[in-house]
Write a structure and sequence with these properties.
Blueprint: H1 3-21, E1 23-35, E2 38-49, H2 52-70
Antiparallel strand pairs: 1-2
Helix pairs in contact: 1-2
Length: 71
């Protein structure tokens, strides 16, 4: 399997996941208060939204790479 086909498959999968879930979230740990040797850690939940046009574009580009990879 050549790299073009592999990248095409990855783009199609990522675009499909973007369409299904619409984004992803992660937890970021930051220091809230620091008083001498004491630190108060705060966990913040961040959400990243993936636009539909980006997901659809990834799918189209992946299909294009698969078609071009055949030739």
């Amino acid at each position: 399997m050549n790299p073009t086909k592999l990248i095409g498959i990855i783009l199609i999968a990522a675009g499909g996941l973007g369409l299904v879930y619409g984004g992803f979230s992660y937890t970021k740990e930051t220091t809230g208060v620091k008083l001498g040797p004491l630190e108060l850690k705060v966990q913040e939940k961040e959400t990243v939204n993936v636009p539909l046009i980006v997901s659809a574009g990834a799918i189209v580009l992946g299909v294009f790479l698969l078609v071009v990879g055949r030739k």
